[in-house]
Write a structure and sequence with these properties.
Peroxisomal Thiolase, Chain A, domain 1, alpha+beta, eight-stranded mixed sheet
C-alpha cells in the first residue's frame, strides 16, 4: 500500500545547515557541505517562564517546526502533529542520572517534567495553543521513517494537514560512549492531502526490502549515519533537487521506506 501527501513546508537545522533555504542549496551542490556548530535560536514562541526551562533539544525541535509551519503558511494551532526522536533529551537524562548517583538525590520538578519522551509536543502545544491530536514516537535509528509513516497514515485516515518533527542531539558522557549521536539535527515537514499554492512536491511511501540510500558527499553521509533524525537527508536532497526520483530511507529489520518524490513545478 502506498501512502501519499504533498510537502508544503520544510524546516531544517543541523551542523552547517542553518535553515531549509541553505540546506536546499547545499544538498543541490554536491561537495559544497561544510559542517559547523549549530546555532539554536531561543524559543521566542514560548512564554518566558517556559522558555527558561527548555534545553537544546526543545529549542532544536521548535525551531524547525516554526520554519516548516511558516513555509506552509498554516495556523499551527490547528495542525495535528507527529514528533519523533530516537532518544529525546539525553542531556536531561544525564543530569537525572548524575543526581540520583550522588549524595543528594532530590530531583527538581523541572528535571522530572522534562524527562518524558513527549516533552517537545507539550512545549509545542503551550507555544502555539495546539489542541489537536499529537503523537510522539521512538524507533531507534528508524525514528524518522516511523514518524513519516505515522504522519502519512494519519492523512490517509483523516485527510487534513499534519506537522511532522524529527530531532536528535548528542548524549553527554558516559552515555555518549554507549549511544554515540554525533550532532544536533532537526527536520520538520508540513504534509497536506491536497496540492496547494505552496506545495513543493508530492511524496508516496511504501515499505520495501531495500537497503537505505547513502549520500554521495562523504561529510553529509557521515551526518546521515551519525544522527538518527538525519536519516531524512536523502529525502531532503530529493526535495531540494527538483526532479522526480525515488529515495530509500532507513527503516526496521533490513527494510527501507521507499519514497517517490514528484516535484510540483
Amino acid at each position: 500500500m502506498n501512502l501519499g501527501a504533498y510537502v508544503d513546508g520544510i524546516g531544517v537545522l543541523g551542523p552547517g545547515l542553518p535553515d531549509w533555504r541553505a540546506a536546499a542549496r547545499i544538498l543541490r551542490d554536491a561537495g559544497g557541505y561544510r559542517p559547523a556548530v549549530s546555532e539554536l535560536p531561543a524559543p521566542s514562541i514560548l512564554p518566558v517562564a517556559e522558555r527558561r526551562r527548555t534545553g537544546r533539544v526543545v529549542r532544536l525541535a521548535l525551531a524547525v517546526a516554526v520554519e516548516a509551519v511558516r513555509g506552509a503558511a498554516l495556523d499551527p494551532a490547528h495542525l495535528p502533529s507527529v514528533f519523533t526522536s530516537s532518544g529525546g533529551d539525553g542531556a536531561n537524562c544525564h543530569e537525572i542520572c548524575t543526581t540520583l548517583a550522588g549524595p543528594q538525590r532530590e530531583l527538581s520538578p523541572t528535571r522530572f517534567t522534562n524527562s518524558v519522551h513527549n516533552l517537545v509536543a507539550g512545549y509545542w502545544s503551550i507555544a502555539v495553543g495546539a489542541m489537536r491530536p499529537s503523537q510522539t514516537l521512538c524507533a531507534y535509528d528508524a525514528s524518522f521513517a516511523a514518524g513519516l509513516l505515522e504522519a502519512l497514515v494519519g492523512i490517509a485516515v483523516e485527510p487534513e494537514p499534519v506537522l511532522l518533527v524529527a530531532y536528535d542531539a548528542p548524549y553527554p558522557q558516559p552515555l555518549h560512549a554507549t549511544r554515540p549521536i554525533t550532532a544536533e539535527f532537526g527536520v520538520a515537514l508540513v504534509l497536506t492531502p491536497e496540492r496547494g499554492a505552496r506545495s513543493v512536491a508530492r511524496i508516496e511511501a511504501t515499505v520495501a526490502a531495500d537497503a537505505a540510500q547513502a549520500l554521495g558527499d562523504a561529510q553529509l553521509e557521515a551526518l546521515r549515519r551519525g544522527v538518527p533524525a538525519a536519516r531524512s537527508l536523502p529525502l531532503l536532497a530529493a526535495l531540494a533537487g527538483g526532479l522526480p526520483q525515488v529515495t530509500q530511507l532507513e527503516y526496521l529489520d533490513a527494510t527501507a521506506l521507499r519514497v517517490q518524490v514528484d516535484p510540483c513545478g
